[in-house]
Write a structure and sequence with these properties.
Distance between the termini: 28 Å
Strand content: 15-25%
Number of domains: 1
Order of helices and strands: HEEEHEHHEH
CATH architecture: 3-Layer(aba) Sandwich
Number of helices: 5
Number of strands: 5
CATH class: Alpha Beta
Amino acid sequence: MKDTELINECKATGRALNYEVQSAVDIGAGEIDVIWTRKDHANLPTFKLGFFFCPTGEVPTDFLTQSVAKALLSVCDKAIFLVHDDGSLKSVKGKIHALDSIGGVLQLKKYAHAITSDELLGGIR
């Protein structure tokens, strides 16, 4: 079950920052909880952030890898993992670092980012 209050806060924050906001978006790669989209310049590409709301507690590695795949296939510029507390934040950041150390073409630490709901809301206060 998704935290509807957190989803609504994320949507309101995106709108306050002048992003176009969509929720429960699925363009064929799987559902992304919230997408913020903005086109700042006519001659530059649209910037797209995909938000995934992490479950409380230990976040499974499969959740992270599947979410990153959904974001990549949905042409998101960044995958943002929104967590409830500092313990979950540390867990998600550690798993992103561990997955990144395996190697490959994608530098996961430059694509995936984790923040707490307080950090997200603090960006507009």
